[in-house]
Automatic annotation (TrEMBL):
InterPro entries linked to this entry: Gal_mutarotase_sf_dom, Glyco_hydro/deAcase_b/a-brl, Glyco_hydro_38_C, Glyco_hydro_38_cen, Glyco_hydro_38_cen_sf, Glyco_hydro_38_N, Glyco_hydro_38_N_sf, Glyco_hydro_57/38_cen_sf
Catalysed reactions listed for this entry: N(4)-{beta-D-GlcNAc-(1->2)-alpha-D-Man-(1->3)-[alpha-D-Man-(1->3)-[alpha-D-Man-(1->6)]-alpha-D-Man-(1->6)]-beta-D-Man-(1->4)-beta-D-GlcNAc-(1->4)-beta-D-GlcNAc}-L-asparaginyl-[protein] + 2 H2O = 2 alpha-D-mannopyranose + an N(4)-{beta-D-GlcNAc-(1->2)-alpha-D-Man-(1->3)-[alpha-D-Man-(1->6)]-beta-D-Man-(1->4)-beta-D-GlcNAc-(1->4)-beta-D-GlcNAc}-L-asparaginyl-[protein]
Function summary: Catalyzes the first committed step in the biosynthesis of complex N-glycans. It controls conversion of high mannose to complex N-glycans; the final hydrolytic step in the N-glycan maturation pathway.
Gene Ontology CC terms, in alphabetical order: cis-Golgi network; extracellular space; Golgi medial cisterna; Golgi membrane
Entry EC number(s): 3.2.1.-
Family classification: Belongs to the glycosyl hydrolase 38 family.
GO molecular function: carbohydrate binding; hydrolase activity, hydrolyzing N-glycosyl compounds; mannosyl-oligosaccharide 1,3-1,6-alpha-mannosidase activity; metal ion binding
EC top class, as a word: hydrolase
Protein name: Alpha-mannosidase
Residue ranges crossing the lipid bilayer per the database entry: 7-26
Cofactor: Zn(2+)
Record-annotated Glycoside hydrolase family 38 central domain positions: 502-588
Length: 1145
C-alpha cells in the first residue's frame, strides 16, 4: 500500500517535471525562432554576435532548467520521504502529495518541504518575558507613584553594599538631532561644531573625563572642516577610551516607520565612514530618542557584531512592569528565533526621559539639582523648584549623600550593583563653560564619594561600553551553572506612551507624502547601486572612459547619506518644523534625480550591444525615466514619449531577483501604436485615455499598457512606434453618477443609475463595487466563494480636551465617523485587455481599484491607489477601512520594518490610539480559512479595532502643537499618493492553536507581491535622437537564474576605496532569507521559482560576470569572521540577513 502510494507520487512528480520543462521551453520558445520583422539595417553587422546572443540565451535557459529539475528531484525525494513518514504530512500542504493533484495550468511553485518546517515550528523557545503576555498582564491603571510619578517607591537597606560596593558610571553625552527645529546644517553651524571643538579641548584636560557620540552624519561634517592636529587629537581620545562611538550609524533612526533596507544602509554608511577615517568599531547600541523600539534594530545590531544595546522610549507602564520584575536588562531575542543566536543584551532606561533630571535616580527634583548647567544665574532652571548648588568643600558631604541615595535607588531596579547614570541632553556641551560646570562639580563629588568608605561606592565617568564591560563582569561573577542573571525577552516596544493616554501613534502617519517618497527613494537607490556595480565592471573591462564611474560614485554616496539622514527619528517620522521638512524633501529630490541618471546610464551601458558605442556618444543621459517628479513636494508624473514611424527603444529593468511578468504603462503621443518584444513579436497593447481631470480626456497623451516579461535582475528591450496597422485594444469607459466629456477615440458610456453592481473580473477574481465605486465583495474563482471585502473611508477629529493630536500624538475624539458625501461621487470604470479599474472621485480622495488581467502574481491581488488631499480640513485624519467577515476577533498582524511580522491584540482596556501600530509593508487579519492582507508601499499607522477589519490612516492635518517640543501642528499637507494591494488567500489550517503564537509569516505569494509593490520595474526610453542608430541587446539578465523564492537581494553596494574618496573593486552583497508560511495553496501562484534550503552555488549566480571572490562579513562590513575565506556556496538560515564581500570580473 505504502509502496504503491509512493510510486504514484513519484510517477506524478516525474510527469510534472516533464510537463514543466515543456512549458518552460514553449514559454521561452519564441526566443529560439528566427527574429520577427525588424527594421532593415538594424543589424548592419554582427549576424555572428546575434548567434552568440542566442547561444548565450540557450545556455542560460539550460542552466535554469537544470536547476529547476534538480530542485524538483530534491522535492520529489523529500516528498516521498514525507509520505513514508506519516507524522510529517501535517507540515503544510506541500507534503500532502501535491503530485496527486490534477495537473496545474501553470507550473507550481516548488517548495522544498524542509523549507516549511521553520514557520510551522512557530517561534522562539519560550522566552522569560513575551511582550504580548505582558500586555495581557498589565492593568494600565497609571496610579500616582510619588516622586517617581509613573513608578513606585523604592526602598533599600543601608548595609546592602557593605560586601560589594555600588559601581556608578556617569556617562556624559549629547543628543544631536540631524534636523528637527533647525535643519541639519543650521544645527551644525549653531551647536554641533562647538560641541566637537570643546570636546577635544575639555577631554584633553583630564584623562578621567569621558564622552560619547553616535550620529556619524555630524561627525563626518565636522571632520571635513578640521585640521590634522584636531583629527589626531580625536583619534587619541578614541584610542585611550575617553571618547566612544556608540552605534555609529549615519543617524539614530526611527524604528517604526523605517524599512530595514534603509536601516541597514545608514548603518553601513556610518560604519564605512568610521572604518576609513577613524578605524574604530562600535560595540554598543545607543537609542535614547526613537519613539518606541523594534526588535529589528536589535537583530541588525547583533548581525553587525554588537553585543550590547540601550533603549529608552518605552511605554511608561512597561517600564514600571520591567522595573518591578528587574527585567530592565535582558537578552532581547527575536520572536522567530528557535535557538538563542539572536540574543543581544539590552538595557532599558527606567525613567521618563534621557535628560539629567530623569537619569540619576527616581526623583527628578533631586536629579535636576545635579545638572550643573542649571546653576543659578544661567538661562535654565529646574521645573521642580529647587536649583542646583555648586559643589564646594562646605556642601559636598550633603550633596554627595543626596545624589548617592538616588543612585542606590536606581540600582534597586537592576540585578547587578553596577549603575548607569547618563549625563546629557539635547545639544548639550556646546559651550566650554558647560563642560567645566559639569566635569568640575562631578569631579568633586566623585573624589569625595570615593574617599568615604562608609558610602561603599566607586564612582567615575564612563562611556556606555565601560558600563557594559562592568555589567558583563558582574554577570559573570554571579552566573550559576553558567546561567546569566539576565532574563530573555521577546517582542517589541510599540506603541509608545510617555504619559497618561498620550500614545505616539500619530507619527506613524504624519507627513505621509514624504513617507511615500522615502520608499520611492529606497527602490531607486537599490536599483542604482546594483546597476552601477555591474556597469562599473563593464566599463573597466571595455575601458569605457566616458562612463562616469567617479562622479556617479560620489552621487551614490550622497544619495545614501540623504536617505540615511531621512531615517532620523524626526525626519521620516514627520515630526520636524515645516522648513526642515522641506530641507529633507530637497535632499531626497536632488538625490532622486542623481539616481535616475545613474540608473539610466548604467542600464544603457549594460544593454548596449557594442560597448564602445558608449564612448562615441556625448555623456549626456541616453535613457530617460518614465516617471518624473518636478519638485520636492509634487507627485511623480509620467513623461509623454513622442512616437514616430521610426521605432523607439523602451528598456525595462526588473530590479528583483525573480522572473517577472509585470504590466508596464507608459504615456505616448499617439493612440496608434505598436510594441514589439525583445524577440520582435508584436505585443498585446491596451490603449487607455489620459485624463486631465475627472471628466476631460487629454488629446495629447495616451496611456499604453502591456505585459512585460523580464528576467531576474534583467533588462529587456521593447520597441515602440506609431503605426496605422496597430492592433492595440482601446479601453472602454463606463461613467456613473455624472457625465464626462466625449472622446473622439474612446468609447465612453454614461450609465443610468441602476442597482446592478459594478464588477471587474480576471481569471482569479471577480470584484464587485457599490454605486459609490467602493469595493464590496471579492469572489475567488477557484472555489466560487463570495467574500465581503468592503472598502470605505472614515475620519477622526481630535479630542476637545486640552491636549490634542499633533505631529507625534494621536488623541482622537472617539471612534472614526464615516466619511460622508451628499451626492454619489463620479465613478469611472475602465475595461481593458490588460487591466480594468474603477475610479471614484470624492472631495478628499481619488480612489482607484485596479485588477490586472495577468495570469500570474499581478493578477492575484487588487491594486489600490489613493490620491489624498485634505488641505482644506482642520483637525482631521482620514482613514481607509477594509472590512471583511474574517473571524479574526481581536487579533491582527503588522510587519516591523518590512523585516518580520509581529502579532497584535486589540485591547479594550487601552484607548483607541494605543491600538494603532506602525505598518511598514503589510498588515493582515485571518481565521482558519482565510487571510486578508493589506500590502503597503509606504509606512502608515494601522489598526484592527473590529474583527475582520483593517484600518489604515492615510493623512492627518492638525492645527496645534502636541507639547513634545516641536512647537507647531502639522498643516503643510501635500497632495499625497498612497499605494496598496489587497491579497485574499485561502489558508489550510486545521490547528488553530498556532493562533496564540508570538510570531507569524507571510506566504511566499504575499512576500513576492510586496516586493513587486515596493520595487516596481523601471521603464526607460532611449532618447529619440539615439534610437534609430543604436544597437541594443534584446535582453540582459544579470543573473543566470532566479534566486530561490525565499532569498531576497537586499542590496549590492559598491564598497568605498581605502584611499581617496572613490570606489573599490568590491561590493557588499546583502542577502535576506525570508521566513514564509506554507499553509497556503502553492498551485497557480505565478511564482516561477523554487526553494533550496537557503543554499546557492556561488558560481551559478551571475550571468556574464565571474565571481573572483566572495567572503562572509558582518552586516555592516566592520568585522570578518575569523575563518572568513572564499566560499563556493552561500547558505542562509530562515530570517537571516547576511553580508558578503564580493568581487566580480
Ligand atoms: Zn532626538
Amino acid at each position: 500500500m505504502k509502496l504503491s502510494r509512493q510510486f504514484t507520487v513519484f510517477g506524478s512528480a516525474i510527469f510534472c517535471v516533464v510537463i514543466f520543462s515543456l512549458y518552460l521551453m514553449l514559454d521561452r520558445g519564441h526566443l529560439d525562432y528566427p527574429r520577427g520583422p525588424r527594421q532593415e539595417g538594424s543589424f548592419p553587422q554582427g549576424q555572428l554576435s546575434m548567434l552568440q546572443e542566442k547561444i548565450d540565451h540557450l545556455e542560460r535557459l539550460l542552466a535554469e532548467n537544470n536547476e529547476i529539475i534538480s530542485n524538483i528531484r530534491d522535492s520529489v525525494i523529500n516528498l516521498s520521504e514525507s509520505v513514508e513518514d506519516g507524522s510529517r504530512s501535517s507540515q503544510g500542504n506541500f507534503s500532502q502529495g501535491a503530485g496527486l493533484r490534477p495537473l496545474p495550468s501553470q507550473p507550481s511553485l516548488q517548495v522544498d518541504p524542509k523549507d516549511c518546517l521553520f514557520a510551522s515550528q512557530r517561534g522562539s523557545q519560550r522566552p522569560d518575558v513575551q511582550m504580548l503576555d505582558v500586555y495581557h498582564l498589565m492593568p494600565f491603571d497609571n496610579p500616582d507613584g510619588g516622586v517617581w510619578k509613573q513608578g513606585f517607591d523604592i526602598k533599600y537597606e543601608a548595609n546592602e553594599w557593605d560586601t560589594e560596593p555600588l559601581q556608578v558610571f556617569v556617562v556624559p553625552h549629547s543628543h544631536n538631532d540631524p534636523g528637527w527645529l533647525k535643519t541639519f546644517n543650521d544645527y551644525f553651524r549653531d551647536k554641533t561644531q562647538y560641541i566637537f571643538n570643546n570636546m577635544v579641548l575639555k577631554l584633553k584636560e583630564d584623562s578621567s573625563r569621558k564622552f560619547m557620540w553616535s550620529e556619524i552624519s555630524y561627525l563626518s561634517k565636522w571632520w571635513d572642516i578640521i585640521d590634522i592636529p584636531k583629527k589626531e587629537a580625536v583619534k587619541s581620545l578614541l584610542q585611550n577610551g575617553q571618547l566612544e562611538i556608540v552605534t555609529g550609524g549615519w543617524v539614530m533612526p526611527d524604528e517604526a516607520t523605517a524599512h530595514y533596507f534603509a536601516l541597514i544602509d545608514q548603518l553601513i554608511e556610518g560604519h564605512q565612514w568610521l572604518e576609513k577615517n577613524l578605524g574604530v568599531k562600535p560595540r554598543s547600541g545607543w537609542a535614547i530618542d526613537p519613539f518606541g523600539h523594534s526588535p529589528t534594530m536589535a537583530y541588525l545590531l547583533k548581525r553587525a557584531g554588537f553585543s550590547h544595546m540601550l533603549i529608552q522610549r518605552v511605554h511608561y507602564a512597561v517600564k514600571k512592569h520591567f522595573a518591578l520584575h528587574k527585567t530592565l536588562e535582558f537578552y532581547w531575542r527575536q520572536n522567530w528565533d528557535q535557538g538563542s543566536v539572536t540574543d543581544i543584551l539590552c538595557h532599558m532606561m527606567p525613567f521618563y526621559s534621557y535628560d539629567i533630571p530623569h537619569t540619576c535616580g527616581p526623583d527628578p527634583k533631586i536629579c535636576c539639582q545635579f545638572d550643573f548647567k542649571r546653576l543659578p544665574g544661567g538661562r535654565f532652571g529646574c521645573p521642580w523648584g529647587i536649583l542646583p548648588e555648586a559643589i564646594s568643600p562646605g556642601n559636598v558631604h550633603v550633596r554627595a549623600q543626596l545624589l548617592l541615595d538616588q543612585y542606590r535607588k536606581k540600582s534597586k531596579l537592576f540585578r547587578t550593583k553596577v549603575v548607569l547614570a547618563p549625563l546629557g541632553d539635547d545639544f548639550r556641551y556646546s559651550e566650554y563653560s558647560e563642560w567645566d560646570l559639569q566635569f568640575r562639580n562631578y569631579e568633586q563629588l566623585f573624589n569625595y564619594m570615593n574617599s568615604q568608605p562608609q558610602f561603599n561606592v566607586k564612582i567615575q565617568f564612563g562611556t556606555l561600553s565601560d558600563y557594559f564591560d562592568a555589567l558583563d563582569k558582574a554577570d559573570a561573577a554571579e552566573r550559576r551553572n553558567g546561567q546569566s542573571t539576565f532574563p530573555v525577552v521577546s517582542g517589541d516596544f510599540f506603541t509608545y506612551a510617555d504619559r497618561d493616554d498620550h500614545y505616539w501613534s500619530g507619527y506613524f502617519t504624519s507627513r505621509p507624502f514624504y513617507k511615500r517618497m522615502d520608499r520611492i527613494m529606497e527602490s531607486h537607490l537599490r536599483a542604482a547601486e546594483i546597476l552601477y556595480y555591474f556597469a562599473l565592471k563593464q566599463a573597466q573591462k571595455h575601458r569605457i572612459h566616458k562612463f562616469l564611474s567617479s562622479p556617479y560614485y560620489t552621487a551614490l554616496t550622497e544619495a545614501r547619506r540623504n536617505l540615511g539622514l531621512f531615517q532620523h527619528h524626526d525626519a521620516i517620522t514627520g515630526t520636524a518644523k515645516d522648513w526642515v521638512v522641506v530641507d529633507y524633501g530637497n535632499r531626497l529630490f536632488h538625490s532622486l534625480l542623481g539616481l535616475e541618471k545613474i540608473i539610466g546610464d548604467s542600464a544603457f551601458l549594460l544593454i548596449l550591444k557594442d560597448k564602445l558605442m558608449y564612448e562615441s556618444h556625448s555623456s549626456d543621459s541616453f535613457l530617460e525615466m518614465d516617471l518624473k517628479q518636478k519638485s520636492q513636494d509634487s507627485l511623480p508624473q509620467k513623461t509623454i514619449i513622442q512616437l514616430s514611424k521610426k521605432p523607439r527603444y523602451l528598456v525595462v529593468f526588473n530590479p528583483l531577483e525573480q522572473d517577472r511578468n509585470s504590466v508596464v504603462s507608459i504615456c505616448v503621443s499617439s493612440p496608434k501604436v505598436q510594441v514589439f518584444s525583445d524577440s520582435g513579436k508584436p505585443v498585446e497593447v491596451q490603449v487607455s485615455a489620459v485624463w486631465n481631470d475627472a471628466i476631460t480626456v487629454s488629446g495629447q497623451a495616451y496611456e499604453i499598457s502591456f505585459l512585460a516579461h523580464t528576467p531576474p535582475l534583467g533588462l529587456t528591450v521593447y520597441k515602440i512606434l506609431e503605426s496605422d496597422n496597430s492592433n492595440s485594444h482601446l479601453a472602454d469607459y463606463l461613467v456613473y453618477n455624472g457625465k464626462t466629456e466625449e472622446s473622439e477615440i474612446f468609447k465612453i458610456k454614461s450609465m443610468p443609475n441602476t442597482k446592478e453592481a459594478i464588477t471587474l473580473e480576471n481569471s482569479f477574481l471577480m470584484v464587485q463595487f457599490d454605486q459609490s465605486g467602493l469595493m464590496e465583495k471579492m469572489i475567488t474563482k477557484e472555489d466560487g466563494k463570495h467574500h465581503k471585502v468592503k472598502v470605505h473611508f472614515s475620519w477622526y477629529g481630535t479630542t476637545s480636551r486640552r491636549d490634542k493630536s499633533g505631529a507625534y500624538l494621536f488623541l482622537p475624539d472617539g471612534n472614526a465617523q464615516p466619511y460622508v458625501y451628499m451626492t454619489l461621487p463620479l465613478v469611472r470604470v475602465t475595461h481593458g485587455k490588460i487591466y480594468s479599474e474603477v475610479i471614484c472621485f470624492f472631495e478628499h480622495v481619488t480612489h482607484k481599484v485596479r485588477l490586472y488581467h495577468v495570469h500570474g502574481i499581478e493578477g492575484q491581488s487588487v491594486e489600490i491607489s489613493n490620491i489624498v488631499d485634505i488641505r482644506n480640513l482642520y483637525n482631521r485624519e482620514i482613514a481607509m477601512r477594509i472590512s471583511s467577515e474574517i473571524n479574526s476577533q481581536n487579533k491582527f498582524y503588522t510587519d516591523l520594518n518590512g523585516y518580520q511580522i509581529q502579532p497584535r491584540v486589540t485591547m479594550n482596556k487601552l484607548p483607541l490610539q494605543a491600538n494603532v501600530y506602525p505598518m511598514t509593508t503589510m498588515a493582515y487579519v485571518q481565521d482558519a480559512e482565510r487571510r486578508l492582507t493589506l500590502l503597503s508601499a509606504q509606512s502608515l499607522g494601522v489598526s484592527s479595532l473590529i474583527s475582520g477589519r483593517i484600518e489604515v490612516i492615510m493623512d492627518r492635518r492638525l492645527m496645534q502643537d502636541d507639547n513634545r517640543g516641536l512647537g507647531q501642528g502639522v498643516h503643510d499637507n501635500k497632495i499625497t499618493a498612497n499605494l496598496f494591494r489587497i491579497l485574499l488567500e485561502r489558508r489550510s489550517v486545521t490547528d488553530m492553536r498556532e493562533e496564540i503564537n508570538s510570531v507569524g509569516y507571510p506566504s511566499l505569494l504575499s512576500h513576492v507581491t510586496s516586493s513587486f509593490l515596493n520595487h516596481p520595474v523601471f521603464p526607460m526610453t532611449v532618447k529619440a535622437e539615439f534610437s534609430p542608430t543604436l544597437e541594443l541587446l534584446n535582453e540582459f539578465p544579470l543573473l543566470v537564474s532566479p534566486f530561490p523564492c525565499d532569498i531576497h537581494l537586499v542590496n549590492m553596494r559598491t564598497i568605498q576605496s581605502k584611499v581617496g574618496s572613490g570606489y573599490s573593486d568590491e561590493a557588499a552583497l546583502i542577502l535576506h532569507r525570508i521566513g514564509f508560511d506554507c499553509q497556503f495553496p502553492s498551485r497557480d501562484t505565478g511564482l516561477l521559482c523554487s526553494t533550496t534550503q537557503g543554499k546557492m552555488l556561488v558560481q551559478k549566480i551571475f550571468n556574464k560576470f565571474t565571481i573572483e571572490s566572495l567572503t562572509p562579513s558582518s552586516l555592516s562590513l566592520m568585522h570578518s569572521p575569523p575563518d572568513a575565506q572564499n566560499i563556493s556556496e552561500i547558505s542562509l538560515s530562515p530570517m537571516e540577513i547576511s553580508t558578503f564581500r564580493i568581487r566580480l570580473r
